[in-house]
Amino acid sequence: MSSSSALDASTFSQLAEPHRHELQVHCYRMLGSFDDAEDVVQESLLRAWRQRASFEGRSPFRTWLYRIATNACLDSLRQRTRRVLPQHVAPPNIPPEQLPEIGDVHWLQPYPDRLLDQTESGPEAIAIARETIELTFIAAMQLLPPRQRAALLVRDVLGWSATETASLLETTVASVNSLVQRARATVQRNRPPRRADWAAAPPSTEVEREMVEQFMRACERGDAAAIVDMLADDVQCTMPPFPWWFSGKAAVADSFRVGIGPGRPGDFRALATRANRQPACGSYLRSFGETEFRAFAIDVLHIEAGRIVDVTAFHEPALFEAFGLPPTWPAQNR
Fold first, then answer.
1. Mind listing the domains of the chain with CATH numbers?
2. On the CB side of 320, how many CA atoms lie within 13 Å of its CA?
3. pLDDT tens across 238-266, in order?
């Protein structure tokens, strides 16, 4: 294609749509929000359509789209605060009534694996399969200034050269190298203590699947003791948008006894799912006196060596649709 004149609406759609899912993953990494990533990808494709005269076939169409999407993310980040998890705004194990004022906070969101799996072949599938997507990495990205974030993702995840990255950010190669060096140092400082690197999680194992099943059934029975038996000694539990969080087996055990034990707010049911290449479940709550279960939280688990080392319960029922989970569940269903 030598001229943008060939990019009529039909041709543009045929070229752009196969890249939508990987662009959304890239924007999610930049923004830490599933909802914001959807919006920015839509804005990016609209920008690309309006700027189609600037595409003359001198670079791959995919590269051109990534340039537009990355700049759309940078524009968005100028107007929005970063996405965080509770451990970034408050100390652990503080009773809710004793927490200091934390102000307006925008919370990190999970990303459904079912959308990661929608690209079946080609370079897009390779990029998504190799991209680091775990919650710990996404959270670390949000600690970086926007240009450092973009430089690191474009260089280390997308594999662009320093020259290509400099062109995207409209700066010099020396500046790009400096941005990436500082970003890598920040990421290294915020790396989980167990991790030797930021490689994506291995495929789900039978042991992992069995543990998720045990976790869900224990929640349904209100059996806090069974869950406590599954926890690592240094386990963490967070529940955005609630700013309080718990660190250490004793503190997390107490939180589960309150949440699902005798004083629980109702009965629970759970459906298995996956988020950020990690095991997860959608939990439903039937408050006492009600006849159906309602979407309650997406619980994302991190399991290592047969123990749960992290539970992040995203209390955003609106996310259930993205995970392909129903918003309600009749009481008679199991």
1. 10-189 (1.20.140.160), 206-330 (3.10.450.50)
2. 20
3. 999 999 999 999 999 999 888 776 767 88
